[in-house]
Amino acid sequence: MDEGMPTPVPNLMNLPGYRIIAVEETDDAYHIAAETPTASTMCPHCHDLAVVGYGRREQWIRDLPMHGKRVGLYVQTRRFRCKACHKTFYEALPGVDTQRFMTARLVGWIGPMAVRRPFTHVAQEVGVSERTVRDIFHDHVAVLEAHRHVETPQWLGLDEIHLIRPRGVVTNVQECTLVDLLRNRSKETIIAYLGQLPHRERVRLVTMDMWRPYKDAVEASLPDATIVIDKFHVLKMANAAVERVRKQLRESLPSAQRRGLMHDRFVLLKREDDLTDREALLLSTWVKNYPVLGEIHRLKEAFFGLYDCANAAEARSYFQTWEQSLTADHRAAFTELLTAWRTWHRHIVAYFDHPVTNAYTESLNNLIRATDRLGRGYSFEALRAKMLWAEGVTKTRRRPLVRQSPLREQGPPLGHAQFARPPIMAADIATVPMDVGVDMVALSRQLEMGSWDGSSTPS
Ligand SMILES: [Zn+2]
Prior knowledge:
By secondary structure, the chain is an alpha+beta fold. It has helices spanning about 10-15, 105-115, 120-125, 130-145, 185-195, 210-220, 230-250, 255-260, 265-270, 275-290, 290-305, 310-325, 330-335, 335-350, 360-370, 380-390, 400-405, 405-410, 440-450; strands at about 20-25, 30-35, 50-65, 70-80, 90, 95, 100-105, 155-165, 165-170, 175-180, 205-210, 225-230, 395-400, 430-440. The chain folds into 3 domains: about 10-145, no CATH class; about 230-350; about 380-450, no CATH class. Helices cover about 40% and strands about 20% of the residues. The strands form 3 sheets. It has a 7-stranded mixed sheet with strand order 12-11-8-9-10-14-13, sandwiched between helices. A hairpin with a 4-residue loop joins strand 9 and strand 10. The radius of gyration is 32 Å and the shape is elongated. Mean pLDDT is about 85; it is low at about 1-10, about 405-420 and about 455-459.
């Protein structure tokens, strides 16, 4: 700051179109009296230029916070009276959103800020209500939404993510990206979403968790797409059977013994081949002490062997053999899995022709885990915006330009030969960056670090 300058205030404000009359500074705010140097004097009612001054009124306008303090402009707005139609009007204030009593640049600042930080924080910093922040946020997101053009995946994923409540999550399986978040997981919501996908005939494969409305919606909207159930969801059911038996067993034991059935239970869920020597020893102790649990564990391991099969046909017969080996008690333990097989077997074995990569499953699961502790203090719209428009997580992929304009592939229309471009050669094909969604790995990392709202401390 150069104290020798006679009029530092206008530079400080950097708000074109105003002359600063006076500045008053308090502990938490700047109160700035201002006026426009000149005003347009055209009557907004009849467009006549013959007007006379008709006094002034003070209008209070919020502006960008400055040096950590709120800023209020007190504008001496001129009033005019039209000689032609006798109506009065106020001069139009440059750079002001008159509906909101804010400078346009403040509105433009709040929008992106509200995507990154809690509404209450932004409201407090600027000195407006949370409601105002929310309104501006919605307008801002509507603009972002209108400009977001994510390429429709050839391999689409539908899964569940918990943001206050279970939500639908749409992914690109090949790119490991998040494509969208849906308010809920109902059939209607999914059908509406799939219905608006540009070039939805592009979708060849759909991976999903075993949720009936997803299947119904995909069969209705994308009848040619193949549904594939990721092995992860199937294996989870097998593990759930082991957990169920362990818990039942624990209930039936005297409390002194119960504690033992809590520790190191992961050895039951881990694949036997992956156990360390110490873990294998632990497992053998479990099996020796609780033969029922040992049985279920053995069957779980046998079931996991399904995914070592070479193809769908082999997997089907493997399952049959496995199912035939179950006793009535075993069947009870694996009910969920057996039911799922009856409903979904076609899609479960489709996995053998279209295996989902571990990288995809891992990145999705990481994202689901990372979002688990979010939610408090945010609406679904806010969480969705925070995830879809987080900084530096958008993934792009270069695509040949011709794909975007299929007409060119057919050549110019007849009769316009004089305007015809030369035929497109492979080397001529330009590429354009296409938004393929939000990188799930990068987004998870941001969520884990809590850097996305600058306030939360991981708990
Ligand atoms: Zn007039």
